[in-house]
Design a protein that fits this description.
single chain; 497 residues; alpha+beta; 3 domains; 6-stranded antiparallel β-sheet; two-stranded antiparallel sheet; globular
Length: 497
Amino acid sequence: MSVAAPPLFAFDNTFVEELEGLYVPWQGAPAPAPRLLALNVELAAELGADPDALRSPEGLAVLAGSKAPQGAQPVAMAYSGHQFGGLSPRLGDGRALLLGEVLDRAGRRRDLHLKGSGRTPFARGGDGRAAVGPMLREHLVGEAMHALGIPTTRALAVVATGEDVARETLLPGAVLTRVAASHLRVGTFQYAALLRNEALLRRLADYAIARHHPAAAAADNPYISFLEAVVAVQAELVARWMLVGFVHGVMNTDNMTISGETIDYGPCAFMEAYDPATVFSSIDHGGRYAYGQQPAIAQWNLARLAETLLPLIGPDAQAAAAQAMAVLEGFWPIFDAAWLDGMRTKLGLSPDGADDELDGALIADLLELLHTQGVDFTTFFRDAAATLRGDPARDARGLFTDLAAWDGWLARWRECLGAAAGADMSATAEAMDRINPVYIPRNHAVEDALAAATAGDLANYERLLDAVTRPFEERDGLTDLATPGPASDTYITYCGT
């Protein structure tokens, strides 16, 4: 007598059970010849899944969207979104499916979500598919962000489907399996509010509180407390983006999570030469989502969340709006504190007894110097640590053309560090190296790796993935991955839809 194989995942389905009206039950489309391109074995172990089972024909069918796994209740999630400032009332998962939720080995509830698994009722004329390049990009950048300590969704797997998708040319298709604390977004709340169904909106808010911000449930006004919690996690998240030069590229309200995780690595990239106006997205013609605009856009998105919560905050609309506005005004102090603390750490400055005004001026003047001199943001902090060690081969002075300006700033920095002439600053330099990466997904390296992977060669991709998942550990033979691309290059990214 044959014994049935254990299920791939131990699914739970609270979103489906508690939030009818915010999804459509759906099944993925067949994938004729699924083939594994990437499997996150570490993440599989966290989820209690057997990597060998995921590599099996049945596992590949599930990861490609062809077969619903045992215990899953796949649905296309509904949400709205302000896209580049304009409201789209009905977006939703046009090419994606929520398979369900899994309690990982630490007891955390995690969503399993497919991207590129075929058309859904929210497809809006799209083909519902995804290409190999954008799905590998999401895997790569998500793992890089995770290694940098930035809250993020992650990719469990990328599976080639065995069929082409039509974009500018025919490209090999793929499906990504994404893992998230949840896929609840600002846009989810916007969709519920637009339905004018206060009972559903309240169920959604209570569900989000229980799942992500449970302390809010005990507050005098749980919905104000919930808004405060989301504002805090998003302010801290965007500060972390800024500290590594990350540009999201598509900060629509449907791409802002309630959990505080980074989601959707479409037209994203990492800034090289420091410039607050840096934009990579091919469709961001006005620079709405430029690097330096990200904090303000985050607050704007959070204001859209606040609008949806007003009926729950209280019966007096004017009083509720005043309470929500006070919470939104708290965004900047949280962001500014997270940014200042992060920059202090990057520069080896101790927060103990620090002078906010003095350190703030030092940091602002550094950024102005990096901007006017066109200095690579990531390289600078590693070379600055080398300067403290007295390493002439890596002295940050070599990054600047205005040497007098650099020397003047360096003297101020050393004074803030308390570094007397000749003092050994090796411990400070080592601390800086522990939090300033050598390797980020450099734009030219990403494009080279994805182009080769699209053509069937994964070697460059795997080499780059290895580098960015150990970002602080400088290694021989990877100099090209730590080097900026040509300054003359104009790098453009695309959403991959």
